[in-house]
Amino acid sequence: MEPSSLQGLPAAEPRRGATPLGRRLRDLGPLAGLVLLCIAGTLLNPDFATWDNGMNVLTRTAFIGIIAVGMCFVIISGGIDLSVGSMAALIAGSVILVMNWVAPYVGSPASAVLVGMGVALALGAAFGLAHGLLITKGCIEPFIVTLGTLGVYRAYLTYFANGGAITLDGALADTYGPVYYASWLGMPVPIWVFAAVALAGALLLNRTRYGRYVQAIGSNEQVARYAAVAVDRTKILTYVLLGVCVGIATLLYVPRLGSASPSTGLLWELEAIAAVIVGGTALKGGEGRILGTVVGAVLLSVIGNILNLTSIISVYLNAAVQGFVIIVVAFLQRGRR
């Protein structure tokens, strides 16, 4: 059997509810929910439907949405990563420390910012690589690995910050600020970056051999091994991809506040996983869509925005709403692969 081919695999057992109509309804469910939420938000508060509020929602969605694109690959492959929020916090703190340190040596704030961007992407890839190696070569469950690193990353950020906050120097903050606050063609930069990452993720998942391998591993890892798929290498690359996505999201987040603290990225893992699951990706792996993940991320942001504008329930219950959403969607997905 050719290593690069999945031909010869036994035919998959038909899924319950996998009729064409059932698949169409499942695929359109998140989008229909988003449309209904937007209608409800407009009726509850006319300010919801303004351009400025829409741009604000999408900009705030960009951080979680970019991470959710990487998380989508991990969940489709049958894995999970609970550490992305803590990883983002440590990357943010490390980037600020590096930029503050190198600024006097590189001659200009812009050069220091570029160095910091490179460090963010390198750290994200390195953390993802460590997760992949521990899971594949160390034969440890993804849940356990990332649960452990969740505590490790945030503890180191707290240590570097001495329990407080790590702040970007003034000149660097002014130079770095446009990465978050600037607009192009009327839309903030984070939205464009989110769109680019989502498009690249969709092409990678649906148009490349790597994407087919990710889905094959999530569907049946043992059969994928029989088909000569490089399972370990594919899983490692998947966690590296997620780490890079966390690095990109952190690059957009740092100029927003110009600082990092132990509370940075808190519960981002919950929001990213919720976006992926709400978007229609099977929690047990094997199937998922980047477009659905994007819709799921926006849908969750819209829920939070409506709660902020209408005070139907306390904004402090946003995380509870997301938790309930995960439980409900997981219940509806039971038995599905």
Major beta-sheet overview? 2 strands, antiparallel
Count of DSSP helices?
A: 14
Question: How is the quaternary structure best described?
Answer: single chain
Our measurement of the CA-to-CA distance between the termini, rounded to an integer number of angstroms, reads 25 Å
Number of strand elements = 4
Structural class of the helix and strand makeup? mainly alpha
The topology string of helices and strands comes to HHHHHEHHEEHHHHEHHH
Tell me the strand order in the biggest sheet. Answer: 1-4
Rounded radius of gyration (Å): 20 Å
Mean pLDDT: 87
Low-confidence stretches: 1-17
Q: What fraction of the residues are assigned to beta strands by DSSP? A: under 5%
Principal-axes shape call: globular
Percent range for helical residues?
Answer: over 70%
In short:
The protein has 14 helices and 4 strands. It is 72% helix and 2% strand.
Task: Write a structural description.
The chain has helices spanning 20-44, 51-76, 84-106, 109-136, 142-160, 170-176, 178-181, 189-207, 209-219, 221-226, 231-257, 268-278, 290-310, 318-332; strands at residues 166-167, 183-184, 187-188, 259-260. It has 337 residues and is mainly alpha-helical. The chain has a domain at 59-265. The strands form 2 sheets. Strands 1-4 form a two-stranded antiparallel sheet. A hairpin with a 2-residue loop joins strand 2 (183-184) and strand 3. Helix 12 runs parallel beside helix 14. The longest helix has 28 residues, at 109-136. The model is unreliable at 1-17 (pLDDT under 50).
